[in-house]
Specification:
The chain is of the alpha/beta class. Helix content is about 25%, strand content about 10%. The longest helix has 11 residues. The two termini are about 25 Å apart.
Length: about 240
């Protein structure tokens, strides 16, 4: 255990639970997941670095009912669609994990608040300055941001990573979107499945995220490169 969490190699916690799940770590009715890492001590240490009082906003936060383990048809802590008041075509029934149909929504985040030490890794500026040779296709899933690249960005920026940090990655997607003609953007908005730059789905990325962060965000539509085909099932929890 480190910082009162199990090692990545010790996941899943339950023998019958899906790969890499940590169900039950914060109790069977928990609705915060890794946001539980934002303890009073973590927030207090973060507050010591405040200089201007500026805050960050986001267009979207994914709740814990956003994406399920597909084969098991289970969400965080084993919740089912039926727990959310939604009919499951596979017939899954309610469990004892959910207290009400609004469980696992982002309202739980707002009740607690998401306050902590934000860390920005400006991958886009790093690529432009130090690695212009790297392929950059913002509107496809071909450009995958790797762990070694992010660690190099942190090193060059002089940015330290602490347990409980909130990670922000600037991929350059929004800049590219703003500079692209509308007639090129329009068909991208209706393409299915959509594709765009993001973090590579890999074991090493998943372990790094698990071992360090309370939450992650980016300037691209999804945190991970999408759509990344032929990745191992075990890597899906990156989403």
């Amino acid at each position: 255990m480190s910082h009162n969490i199990p090692k990545y190699s010790e996941l899943p916690l339950g023998k019958s639970d899906p790969p890499l799940s940590a169900w039950g770590l914060y109790g069977p009715h928990d609705q915060l997941g890794t946001l539980n890492r934002l303890t009073e001590d973590i927030v207090l240490e973060a507050a010591k670095e405040i200089r201007t009082g500026a805050s960050q906003s986001s267009s979207q936060w994914d709740g814990l009912r956003h994406f399920a383990y597909q084969e098991e048809r289970r969400f965080y802590n084993g919740a089912t669609l039926a727990d959310f008041g939604i009919t499951d075509p596979e017939g899954a029934s309610k469990t004892d994990h959910a207290r009400h149909e609004n469980t696992h929504g982002v309202e739980a985040f707002s009740e607690k608040g998401v306050v902590g030490r934000g860390v920005l890794l400006d991958w886009a500026s790093w690529r432009e300055k130090y690695r212009p040779d790297l392929e950059f296709e913002p509107f496809t899933g071909k450009t995958k941001i790797t762990l070694d690249q992010l660690q190099e960005v942190a090193r060059i920026q002089g940015t330290s990573i602490r347990f409980g940090d909130i990670l922000f990655i600037r991929s350059g997607y929004l800049k590219a979107y703003a500079q692209t003609p509308a007639d090129v953007i329009k068909p991208l908005t209706t393409a299915f499945p959509p594709s765009f730059v993001g973090v590579k789905q890999s074991e090493e990325i998943a372990e790094w995220l698990w071992s360090n962060f309370a939450a992650v965000a980016g300037d691209q539509p999804a945190f991970e490169a999408f759509r990344q085909y032929n990745y191992p099932r075990i890597c899906r929890p990156v989403h």
